[in-house]
């Protein structure tokens, strides 16, 4: 039996309690407004996807960079961003404006604002999306990936605390298991939302929940902020929006986000007049592995690889220059989709895995997430692979660990899809690569890059193994990892102006409607263009959520 409909009123309604929603609600409540937050999940999921993240942030010319001898500037970051984004559409006007504003934020008050809230940062800056093309091509010219001390939970914590403090005073009301099915409209503007009340759930964070309806609700609000996330948990929608430039969508993918990241607010926002743009721009990883201890359906984890592993296609052919681990995510995805296979391989040594392998996600990094310095020193600088990585080596369905190359290839071929692997081609690629180690000079661009990378203190310390022969038994055992496409981020979304106000197809402001976070393409409907520089997803949630919350109070 469906319960009687609920009726609520607020100054600001926030749909979705991920990082962007929490920031927006915090800003609106701080300005004295009455705020309601709704989400379709149980309260255990407060913080959304950001809780599961590695907590990486893109800063420009930070104290951490300067201490490591990195010379960075707003000018250099702007060059890298626009070369990577490759904006080329009429609809890219506002995304371009958001990119300029975000770069100012990343090089200015972002870090200080977070430090004031008690957020700290790991001292070693990572070098993600290295590019590998010329100086004006895509990719980061310098390391800019700053890891939050406490990872995703550490980034969520101050905003969750602010929201809960405001809830205790009655300034904020949180309504779990409230799924918005339509936005209320009047005279061309948005005046709130209505939808279904879902059955209570005791499911743990991240676990899939039911969609059983037990009631309905209506909320009247002067301003409504859509911060409902992307589409990565909905493979049908990912495939429907898959762009031809990335080849055909995989028959099988694994999922890097909980099932509730389903894109269900897209048609709701569109029905209220919002213009959704750049839906074919998306960000999926090619270093995905099946989680041996899954939380959500088809749960995958991304390897955050250092640059030394040899990357092979499903048949055993080595990927071309500069498609090395950590260099060009979408370039690698596009290349692999042309091979006709849904998987690829890393081949590496024990010496590489213990130095270079980190797994994405707060739950896979107990040292950083738990702010445990002793565990961090032991896991990052000690002998052997870090505990979570070792668990995958022992239990992961995609890992093969053997003493000889013949045994390794046999183990690779025994995995599903492994029958297409050409043993002789694998042997030829690995042996040829190893021969290049004999001299300090080489024609192998990956080996030359490894030697160059170790000139950066951060890489030499914890990220890049000294170049060595993979087949040398002293560096073993040998390891192969079967890699899958891992769904993750939507780069397009609701088109907004620089005040996060939603725009219609004519470019006119829809009164009362705002959008932030992944639902807005992290700003403007696609602040990243075609590609991201990493550390800019949670950063984009912070920035767009702050703007939306402040603008909504007006």
Automatic annotation (TrEMBL):
Residue stretches making up the FAD-dependent oxidoreductase 2 FAD-binding domain: 11-538
InterPro entries reported in the protein's UniProt record: FAD-dep_OxRdtase_2_FAD-bd (IPR003953), FAD/NAD-bd_sf (IPR036188), KsdD_DH (IPR014614), Succ_DH/fumarate_Rdtase_cat_sf (IPR027477)
Classification via SUPFAM superfamilies: FAD/NAD(P)-binding domain
One Pfam family it belongs to: FAD_binding_2
EC number: 1.3.99.-
PANTHER family, sorted: 3-KETOSTEROID-DELTA-1-DEHYDROGENASE (PTHR43260), KSDD-LIKE STEROID DEHYDROGENASE RV0785 (PTHR43260:SF1)
Name of the molecule in the record: KsdD-like steroid dehydrogenase
Organism: Microbacterium laevaniformans
Organism lineage: Bacteria, Bacillati, Actinomycetota, Actinomycetes, Micrococcales
């Amino acid at each position: 039996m469906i319960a009687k409909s609920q009726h609520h009123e607020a100054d600001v309604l926030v749909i979705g309690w991920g990082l962007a929603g929490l920031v927006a609600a915090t800003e609106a409540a701080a300005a004295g407004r009455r705020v309601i937050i709704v989400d379709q999940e149980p309260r255990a999921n407060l913080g959304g996807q950001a809780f599961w993240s590695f907590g990486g942030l893109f800063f420009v010319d930070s104290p951490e960079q300067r201490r490591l001898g990195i010379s960075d500037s707003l000018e250099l970051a702007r060059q890298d961003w626009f070369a990577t984004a490759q904006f080329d559409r009429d609809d890219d006007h506002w995304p371009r404006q958001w990119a300029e504003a975000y770069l100012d934020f990343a090089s200015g008050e972002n870090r200080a604002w977070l430090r004031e809230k008690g957020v700290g940062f790991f001292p070693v800056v990572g070098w993600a999306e290295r590019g590998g093309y010329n100086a004006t091509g895509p990719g980061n010219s310098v390391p800019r990936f700053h890891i939050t001390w406490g990872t995703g939970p550490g980034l969520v914590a101050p905003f969750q605390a602010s929201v809960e403090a405001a809830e205790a005073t009655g300034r904020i009301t949180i309504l779990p298991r409230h799924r918005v099915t339509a936005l209320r409209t009047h005279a061309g503007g948005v005046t709130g939302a209505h939808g279904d009340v879902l059955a209570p759930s005791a499911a743990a964070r991240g676990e899939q929940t039911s969609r059983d309806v037990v009631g309905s609700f209506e909320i009247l609000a002067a301003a409504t902020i859509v911060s409902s996330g992307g589409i990565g948990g909905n493979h049908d929608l990912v495939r429907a929006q898959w762009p031809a430039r990335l080849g055909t969508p995989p028959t099988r993918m694994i999922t890097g986000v909980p099932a509730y990241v389903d894109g269900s607010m897209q048609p709701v926002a569109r029905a209220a007049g919002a213009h959704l743009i750049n839906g074919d721009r998306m960000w999926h990883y090619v270093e995905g592995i099946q989680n041996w201890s899954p939380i959500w359906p088809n749960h995958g984890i991304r390897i955050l690889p250092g640059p030394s592993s040899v990357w092979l296609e499903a048949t055993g052919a080595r990927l071309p220059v500069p498609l090395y681990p950590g260099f060009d995510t979408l370039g690698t995805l596009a290349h692999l989709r042309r091979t006709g296979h849904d998987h690829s391989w890393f081949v590496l040594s024990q010496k590489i895995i213990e130095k270079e392998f980190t797994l994405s996600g707060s739950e896979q990094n107990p040292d950083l997430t738990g702010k445990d310095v002793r565990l961090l020193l032991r896991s990052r600088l000690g002998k052997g692979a870090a505990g979570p990585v070792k668990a995958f080596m022992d239990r992961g369905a995609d890992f093969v660990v053997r003493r000889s190359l013949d045994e390794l290839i046999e183990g690779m071929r025994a995995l599903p899809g492994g029958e297409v692997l050409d043993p002789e081609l694998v042997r030829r690629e690995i042996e040829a690569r190893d021969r290049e180690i004999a001299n300090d000079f080489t024609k192998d661009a990956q080996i030359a890059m490894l030697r160059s990378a170790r000139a950066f203190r951060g890489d030499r310390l914890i990220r890049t193994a000294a170049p060595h022969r993979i087949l040398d038994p002293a560096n073993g055992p040998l390891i192969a990892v079967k890699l899958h496409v891992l769904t993750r981020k939507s780069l397009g979304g609701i088109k907004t102006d620089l005040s996060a106000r939603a725009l219609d197809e004519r470019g006119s402001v829809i009164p009362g409607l705002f959008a932030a976070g992944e639902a807005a393409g992290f700003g403007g409907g696609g602040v990243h263009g075609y590609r991201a520089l990493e550390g800019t997803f949670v950063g984009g949630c912070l920035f767009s959520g702050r703007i939306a919350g402040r603008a909504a109070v007006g």
